[in-house]
Fold this protein.
Amino acid sequence: MKFDVIFRVAAKILIPYMLVFALYVQFHGDFGPGGGFQAGVIAAAMVIFYAIIFGLKAAQKIFPPRIIELMVPSGVGIFAGAGVLSLLLGENYLNYSPFAQDPAHGQEYGIILIEIGVLVTVSGTMVAIFYSFIGRGR
Amino acid sequence: MVLLTLLAAVTIGIIRIRNLFGVVVLGGIYSFLMASVMIVLDAVDVAMTEASVGAGISMVLMLGTLYLTKTEETVPAHTPLLPLFVAVATGAALVFGTFALPPFGVADTPMNLHVAPYYLGNSIQDTLVPNVVTSVLSSYRGFDTLGETAVIFTAGIAVMLLLKGKRDVKPGPKRRSVRR
Amino acid sequence: MDLLQTIVSHYNHWIIIFLMVSGLYIVVARGNMIKKLVGLGLFQTSVYLLYLSPGKILGGTPPILSPQFTVYSNPLPHVLILTAIVVGVATLALGLALVVRINEAFGTIEEDEIFAGEEDK
């Protein structure tokens, strides 16, 4: 069908920009609206868009379900691990002050670290839920 | 505001329409209008989350469910007079209660006077982050975010447990068979 | 114009109550499970508005600190509602997965038909 070509070309142009936009929202969450949750959902939307246009098998070849299932608990692990790291460095749980030379910079590094954890979990969960729903009807 | 009236109109559409595909699309329109209302209320982080989550992921999941259940219309029900009466009575009681609330947009209500000026004043010198919502979410109240991430993780695990096994092709009397 | 001032200052509270009540009505009165879940989402979003609208200060800006503004809207409700939105979508996904399994076990997602089928046994 002719419309098929339009969707494929548009998808090939749009998908890299969606990934870049997701990473932009993630890392500029300190200076404008954004943060881990929004970036995770936009990254998951990129994978879902690819799966809708090119088919589930092609999407699962590029984003394998095994790696997505591994992403789901590792984000929570990064988050909790940041807390344990600050316990090992002598402060309370989830107090990011000892991560750098003075407390303010330590807090900033801690915020960046846990936002990465949130991004990994949210995007992994959304893609895993999508794979479960669509993989059921086969 | 005009946006709030549009929200009410879309809600009436969601109640009355029977075709489920139309209900899902109206839900997406509703989420988009809700994100616009939130921007007018100066909540930009929340608007971005509501737009991406409500008009994106939840519409995709509902369309996926419609694909799996193959149902398109609801059947007409018996006249729901008792729920209508309960809903209207609850609404009237709540409207009676709103006359005691402070008017919209005033700056000296109790909720704006205790903790919020501390966060607005000390966010830069404690965390070097200008976005106060991010610094409160990740640093001042980081435990809540840890709990929220755990909730998302649990939901993902639960959906995978429910939907990943092999599909029982025959509905009907339940056979207790071991999956996988 | 006391009535006009009352309407202007409380209009968004009344719209919020209308959304809340209609969400409640959909959950209680309709039998289709997917529509019930949509009604539950409607109820949840009305509660988000209920928390966000008292936080707005007329003449303020979004709570991103910058040297050229002095009055900011209250950032605390934004944090709570951000968490609530994400938890809401997690429960919606779980509810939809349960609807899919109910459809496979009973063959229908209408509440009346499921109850009628259970009574016959």
